[in-house]
Amino acid sequence: MNEVLLYKALTWAIPILFAITLHEAAHAYVAKFFGDNTAYSLGRMSLNPIRHIDPVGTVVLPVALLLVSSPFIFGYAKPVPVNSGKLRNPRSSMAFVALAGPLSNLLMVLMWQVAGIILQLAGIKTVFLLEMVKAGIIVNLVLFAFNLFPLPPLDGGRILTSILPTPVGRMFARIEPFGFFILIGLLYFGVLRYWMRPLMVFGQTAVHTVLMPLSFLWR
User: Fold this and answer.
1) How far is residue 27's CA from residue 153's CA, in Å, rounded to a whole number?
2) What pLDDT sits at residue 43?
3) What is the pLDDT of residue 71?
4) Following CA atoms 49, 57, 186, 152 in sequence, which dihedral angle do they give, to the nearest 10 degrees?
5) Which of 36, 48, 66, 148 would give a disulfide with 156, using CB separation of 3.0 to 4.6 Å?
6) Nearest-5° angle of CA 83, CA 162, CA 140?
7) Which residues contact 60 (CB under 8 A, 6 or more apart)?
């Protein structure tokens, strides 16, 4: 049993590290693009996973999900610091900064899908690599859908706060200290899956649509 868990952990480790690292680096890059150098000056606009690792979200949570045989294994990194006051247009720019993370995960779904196609075309049928590709696709679809949920402090909550009328947005942002507990409740009662599944299907469909012109390569 320990060997099975170790194998599964190794299969998911690289996809999770890539997923959270590029997610946070994307936030930092877009923030810098719109005028805020805070994350850049702290070294967070980096593809070095060590700069983004959160002991709980990157290590404890994925391992705990693995031990309870969760159908999905994912995690999160240290949030990238963004000073909205330094953004050229704080409200609209913050929406783009928040959106960058989930979009980076969708891009990684595409990258893992392409990796799978390359393995297929090359005739490589190594189970470990194929399982890693599958894990990469699932992890990034989960992070794409989960982070777009419209509740602070998730990216979707920040996007919604930015596009709501200013007074309403400020009131909505006050939910943030309670956001984690609300999410736990939604997860416990199984409500979040009604948001996750359609968005994951949408993300997978979008990637397949992009890859469709290349489908002749593996026919």
Assistant:
1) 14
2) 87
3) 61
4) -60
5) 148
6) 85
7) none
Kindly state the DSSP code that residue 212 receives in the 8-state scheme.
Answer: G
CA distance 208 to 137: 12
Residue type (1 letter), 76: Y
Question: What local confidence, expressed as pLDDT, does residue 55 receive?
Answer: 82
Which of these, 129, 113, 87, 109, lies nearest to 23 by C-alpha position?
Answer: 109
- What is the mean pLDDT, run by run of 10 residues, along the chain of 219 residues? 74 88 94 93 86 81 72 72 90 94 97 92 89 94 94 94 92 92 86 93 94 67
Where in the chain are the domains? 2-218
- Clarify whether 24 is annotated catalytic: yes
Assess whether the previous peptide bond of 153 is cis (omega < 30° from 0): yes
3, 24, 131, 176: which is the annotated catalytic residue? 24
